[in-house]
Amino acid sequence: MTVRYEPDGSLxxxxxxxxxVRNAVDPDTARLLxxxxxxxxxNDGLLVAVLTGAGGHFCAGFDLKALARGAGxxxxxxxxxxxxxxxxxxxxxxxxxxxxYAVAGGMELALWCDLRVAARDATLGVFNRRFxxxxxxxxxxxxPRMIGQGxxxxxxxTGRPVSAVEALGIGLVERLAPPGMALTEAMALxxxxxxxxxxxxxxxxxxxxxxxxxSIDEAMRVxxxxxxxxxxxxxxxAGARRFSEGGGRHGE
Length: 252
What we know:
252 residues; alpha/beta; 9 strands
């Protein structure tokens, strides 16, 4: 198996396990990634997933040797993306733990995640540019939304490497970790998210992700409806009681 699925309480770690090719994704691995995240989505006891790669690299993109052998994915406008889960819309957060290379389709996998924790010596980039392979796992959509059109155009057209430090500065990753510690810090972040009240967290996440195609009025209504559902659950009232009793203050 080239994908490991390892639950741990309310968390699950999904690991691309092809270290001999820097975790490049072939068609079988793409299908296994989809299956792993379908399993995560269906398990109400799992609240946050962490996606990472084995052997010191996140993912070097689609396996070009497989593509050269004619073993590329069957492309379609609907269904899974060539890299696997990149078209999936989950209702729970996924965090990317990035060591080594997260390039080409591997960077698109990282962009699919909600948050990215990168080791300081990690490298990101649109390395597929040099081989004539297009971005078809939503890279041209998510990248400009995250870092702005000008910066995205620079990375997409040149295919240049982006250090983790630069990636943090332009908003391509959210947190840096010491080399070799990306997974540890991503898991700590995942635990923190899992300990928060989930109804409001998911409602706000849905509104944030869903507002791009909406007018301000439509987005306002969607935000309101999601917030109303969260309030109706009683979660906010319980939180207000904890606050009034002194809990949750000073960042606790």
